[in-house]
Write a structure and sequence with these properties.
Length: 276
């Protein structure tokens, strides 16, 4: 029998709190010590029962980004029940770790062996999320992956993102056309769905010109920037009415050149979020 979905909360003595569902090892909420509100957008219409993917927070995308392959959109990790394996709460640092192994269901659609580990580390004003994939099988395979983070913003029209200047991006809304980014600050006034290549430098989300969040990543090669805007947003049944105004997705990812993992190898990718 399928067990009920539960969520877990860890905190630091300094006042930071993070909440994670074991469905998808999905971070639902992150309140750093310097804030009183969830810094991640989570749609009020989101289904948290474990039947469908959660709209908001940090979905783990593995082993397929979007529809770039035969698997369900964005792979199966966000739809799987992960196992909680560690909780350690400290004065200034707390950790929670989940694992997911291949199963008859996963092998039915993706015939490979893997052990995935996801560690969430909470400190006063930072959140670090680290995904590792270990190939414990006898066959090599490749995969694409992302930490599909929904960042809460007060108003998307006064939100900017910087750190992408000079990079090439593929525009998912224009047949994956490749364009060089020439903007120091990216602003938002329409649907945006892009994969920035070789995005290895820190990114900053600014609200009304002031930085509110720094996003650093390691192990990932690309960065997806997504906002559905009004029309596409209205088609997402689990998104709040005009919810597009309240978030920006910035996702450390490896998509353009999939990760090849040989037997016995481990791949690790992480993101570090700093709230100002
Ligand atoms: O990461 C951007 C993206 O691939 C978009 O194309 C958009 O479809 C989004 O993910 C959300 O996907 P979902 O399956 O969660 O509705």
């Amino acid at each position: 029998m399928k067990k009920a979905v539960s969520s877990h909360q860890i905190s630091t003595k300094s006042g930071a709190i993070v909440t994670i569902s074991d469905f998808g090892a999905h971070v639902l909420s992150w309140i750093p010590a310097n804030r009183t509100e969830n810094q991640l957008y989570l749609s009020k219409k989101s289904d948290l029962s474990g039947k469908t993917a959660i709209r908001g927070g940090i979905p783990i995308i593995f082993p397929q980004f979007s529809n770039r392959g035969p698997l369900p959109k964005h792979g199966f990790a966000r739809l799987a029940e992960w196992e909680l394996t560690e909780i350690t709460e400290g004065e200034t640092e707390s950790f929670i770790t989940f694992t997911l192994d291949d199963s008859p269901e996963s092998r039915y659609i993706w015939p490979f062996r893997f052990m995935a580990t996801y560690q969430v580390k909470l400190t006063t004003n930072q959140l670090q999320t680290t995904l590792s994939i270990y190939n414990n099988g006898v066959q090599s395979y490749s995969f694409t992956t992302a930490l599909h983070s929904y960042f809460s913003v007060q108003d998307i029209q006064s939100t900017t993102l910087n750190g992408l200047n000079g990079l090439i991006y593929t525009d998912s809304l224009k047949n994956n056309e490749k364009v060089t980014s020439l903007l120091d600050h990216l602003s938002f006034s329409e649907e945006t769905d892009r994969i920035y290549l070789d995005a290895i430098h820190p990114l900053f989300i600014n609200q009304a010109g002031k930085p509110i969040l720094k996003i650093e990543s390691a192990g990932f090669k690309d960065a997806v920037v997504w906002n559905p805007w009004k029309e596409t947003g209205a088609k997402l049944a689990d998104l709040d009415k005009n919810g597009y105004q309240q978030f920006l997705c910035v996702e450390p990812a490896t998509i353009e050149n999939p990760i090849l993992l040989n037997p016995g190898q481990t791949w690790t990718g992480s993101q570090l979020l700093t709230s100002f």
